[in-house]
């Protein structure tokens, strides 16, 4: 077994240094902290003091008592899918398959075109009817490809024209799951890279307006090459860590890239991320791998969910990646999948990530504290999926999205959105982690698993606890101190400004 300090992640690279020092006057440090002045220079926090008026600065900004916090880091996004979803038909409010089909038919009538029409965000886990191809064929133009993508991205529902386009013309229902779904969506959503890049740039600007200074991108395909191209076209507005999938593993190793390696031509803003592997599916699709059977009538081989990767195959790929300096991020949602992930990490050794960890066995809690392991969690899913969890994980939800128990056990959490599964807005996840309720403002769901605001902010900023001298000047300014806000105010907290390495990426004062 390798020691956990082998192949440590390289320190974060900085963009080109900011030559013009900036002085932020009258800012409140952290949660209800004192008013101070903060001087930024060469991309870092140079000084914090009660009065820095005498210090040289080319730009002096009166912050008006606003609160300064470390910039937020979204620990799990699918950036192209999120940017594309912003252009698609929103199906999140549809309550049945027939209603979703009708919504797509209405959208197709408004936008007459031959290109595929995509909808996103449906949740069929609570629908009273089952999606069928004929529903779409009856309500949508027969010659236009129509595809609906589920909120968790693990299911796609296609009409006859779309099925023919992806080579599945004989499919009986049009309902595709897991890998079949991923392949079809990739084919139907392909657009010119220049168009995608414009969508991505707009999505990153919108994220900066919510205080985001970096994110871990789990987009598949040539993710690192795509970001290298975007950086060559225009300055990036956030730090990007790009995941690698098994199809790109050999090429990544051949290029000499390790987890944390900077990508040339990006001013250090794009770095190599982990190898992404899937152990199971998702809760809404009822393919998360669990130790208990699902209550719905499922095929005999799917009663407990689906095992996407055999443990032996996962171990072999993780060991190969780790030998070449690449960590692994393992998608594990069900409790059985999480136990397998922990077993393989214990066997291979080294650092890495478990993504989601939505349902955990209480006996496994201490194992999540292993050195070098990070849990990428999405608290907004807990409030969005509470009804689905109550139905399909009945009797087990006290250990679902169990963030308080995980922190108490010593686990390291990082908060992400999983956009487009949830919007790329960290404040939604922060508020859900603290209050265990969502925009519907229902009674908190398993409030015993709520965590403190300080812990949530730390998990949402990549582990940064406070604004400190010497740190990278990735910062945000809030109009109000987040402490003491009610759930709605916390979700909607205005962000006055965002700085990346001391450079403004968003400012509205």
From TrEMBL:
Biological classification of the source: Bacteria, Bacillati, Actinomycetota, Actinomycetes, Pseudonocardiales
Species: Amycolatopsis saalfeldensis
Residue ranges of every copy of the Amidohydrolase domain listed in the record: 59-503
InterPro entries listed in its UniProt record: Amidohydro_3 (IPR013108), Metal-dep_hydrolase_composite (IPR011059), Metal_Hydrolase (IPR032466)
Protein name in UniProt: Amidohydrolase 3 domain-containing protein
Domain of life: Bacteria
Recorded coiled-coil stretches: none
GO molecular function, one term: hydrolase activity, acting on carbon-nitrogen (but not peptide) bonds
